[in-house]
Amino acid sequence: MKEKNKIIISLGGSLIIPDEVDVEFLKLFVSTIKDYVSRGFTFLIITGGGKLCRRYNESLKKIIEPSIEDLDWLGISITRVNAELVRLCFGDLAYEKVVLDPENIPNTDKPIIVGGGWRPGNSSDLAAIRSATSVGANKIINLSNVDFVYDKDPKFYPDAKSIDKISWVDFRLLFPNEWKPGVNAPFDPIAAYEAEQLGYEVIILNGKKIDNLKAYLDGESFVGTVIK
After folding, report:
1. Model confidence, pTM
2. Where does the pLDDT of residue 204 fall: very low under 50, low under 70, confident under 90, or very high at 90 and above?
């Protein structure tokens, strides 16, 4: 990947397929990324599984007693299907295969590389961290369906407060430190620990608000949470 304007995106599965494939979101996301490619940006996009992973996991639990590793591999498979969908949306601009190992990013002139989940014990967020390390980046954009990190779950607590900036130490105090398939946190706890150790910065943005993503990429003020 080119050194200039190298962007790592962890793209939440909740944006790709909230209930069914969100065609309108993908069209807008793809056209936006293509626009920035035309300006000299390169992108490494790691896709998550989102709600579909949790649905598959819960369905499997009703049939057998799966191991945590079984559930992880099932979720990883879904992230990779999502990655293939996103990769195909970019046509010839994207590297011709979905990247399965973030520690071995292909050397390519293509401006877009797409990957999915990596291995059991974490989410695709860790794949984004390892991918950043592989290509020499230290900032990751995490796109999901929330505007901020909150001090508690706003779905259940009306008085939850949004956070503009937070340290990794404080972030990790808000969420479980252990990984479980389907864990509901803005950033995977295993990935959060590694990001802290590496001194990486993660920006939490609502991917539905494409103009806000553009503002960040343009170096303008944006709505979201910076974790570092």
Report:
1. 0.93
2. very high
pLDDT at 221: 97
Delimit the domains of the chain by residue range.
Answer: 6-227
Beta-bridge mates of residue 11 = 47, 143
Query: What pLDDT digit, counting tens, does each position of 141-174 carry?
Result: 999 999 999 998 888 888 999 999 999 999 999 9
H-only helix segments in 137-221: 168-174, 189-198, 210-217
Given a cut of 50, whether residue 224 has pLDDT beyond it is: yes
Q: How confident is the model at residue 2 (pLDDT cuts 50, 70, 90)?
A: very low
* pLDDT at residue 50 is higher than 50: yes
CATH topology of domain 6-227: Carbamate kinase (3.40.1160)
Reading the block at residue 111, the tokens are 């401006």
On the CB side of 6, how many CA atoms lie within 13 Å of its CA? 17
**Spatial CB neighbours of 121, under 8 Å, sequence gap ≥ 6:** 72, 179, 190
Q: How wide is the angle at C-alpha 78 spanned by C-alphas 140 and 168, nearest 5°?
A: 30
CA dist., res. 55 & res. 197, Å (int): 33
Query: Which tokens in the block code for residue 28?
Result: 């807008």
> CA-based angle 40:46:52, to the nearest 5?
140
What the block records as the tokens of 170 is 């404080």
DSSP label of 10 = E
Residue with tokens 């979101």: 25
Instruction: Kindly tell me the sign of the dihedral angle through the C-alpha atoms of 145, 150, 155, 160.
Output: negative
